[in-house]
Amino acid sequence: MFLYILKLTKYNVIKIGIANNDNRIIKHLNTYEEIDLDNSYKVFANSDKIIKQLEKQILCDYYDFKVNNIDLINKDGYTEIRQEIVLQNVLEDLKYKENKFPQQNIKIVKGIKINNSMEKQYNKQTVDNYDILKERNKLSLRQNNIIDILISELNDAKLFYNIEICNYIKYFNNDTSNIYRDFEKAVKDFHKNDFNWFKGITYVFDNGKIQIKLSDEIRNALLGFKSYIKLKHTLNFNSMYSQRLYYYFKRLEVGRLKKENIRDLQVYLNCPKTYTNFSNFKKFVLDPANKDINDKTDINFEYSFENVGKKIEYIYFKFH
Q1: Which residues pair with 211 in a beta bridge?
Q2: Strand, helix or coil for residue 82
Q3: Which of 234, 254, 279 marks a domain boundary?
Q4: Within a 10 A sphere around the Cβ of 274, how many other Cβ atoms?
């Protein structure tokens, strides 16, 4: 694990974070414009605990230098961004600790080198994975049911799919008395919201079918999810946030501890502004999802929190 400080020249800011490898930095290259890697930094120490303490202290010490740039506010990790004017002070603080506590073996390295082939590989995964999930987080429960059913039927030789709803009712454990009406509305909402994944989507009222035509690009991107979409799990959530968190967990390595900034997670899950109130977020997102996912799927997860000052800033997910 290491601490990184990225210099974002377009906005005159720095991005602070921790990572286990360069994948996290490559992700930021895809998220933010004009990162000056030559004048960015990695910081190493002899334990993960020290790295986490360094990150927490920097973010807390320079909390008053947070930015509110409209171009950054919805980007991944924006709460860990500080004004560039503090960079020299941050480096001096780290240098002081390096000299003061030699036993911690703190080492500051200027310049970040990224392997080009690794960056290209990650770019492909990002298009196929992360961006697809972010778009799905804007959809309703029933719209994502349609996407999951579509994914279950996908193969690399077809672009047109004729989904017969009656073939999938058996997967639902909840009340299905209004299932045809719900799917009809979901298809209308795809049209109303100008959802652009489909070359065409039509609900055929007479026989309860959904006809979907895809492009090669979207078909190939969605195929990357086929291995972990199990309809007996994904069609039975009570909450759309359970659904979104389940997709989020499935793209990560099982058994790991995942740290996420609370606000970044709320943005990723497409939560309403009222859920920035932590008690609402816990009551209406985390607690129902915890019960829903643990009771109904192949994943069990638990979570804990970390404060910065008096405010809860981070959530830790442990799932298996």
Answers
A1: 162, 202
A2: strand
A3: 234
A4: 9
Tokens of 218: 């979207």
92 within a domain of the structure (yes/no): yes
Classify residue 286 by its DSSP letter.
Answer: I
Dihedral, 98, 104, 109, 115 alpha carbons, nearest 10? -170
In this structure, the strands spanning 198-204 and 13-19 are: unpaired
Alpha-carbon distance of 141 to 182, in angstroms, equals 10
pLDDT of res. 130:
67
| Number of domains observed in the structure of the chain | 3
| 106 within 8 A of 43, measured Cβ to Cβ | yes
Contact yes or no for 32/7 (Cβ under 8 A): no
In this predicted model, what pLDDT tens digit does every residue of 303-315 receive, in sequence order?
999 998 888 999 9
Q: For the purposes of burial, counting CB atoms within 10 Å of the CB of 21, is it exposed (0-12), middle (13-18) or buried (19 or more)?
A: exposed
In a domain, 133, yes or no: yes
Task: Judge contact between 54 and 96, C-beta under 8 A.
Answer: no
For the stretch 42-95, pLDDT in tens is: 999 999 999 999 999 999 999 999 988 767 765 667 789 999 999 999 999 999
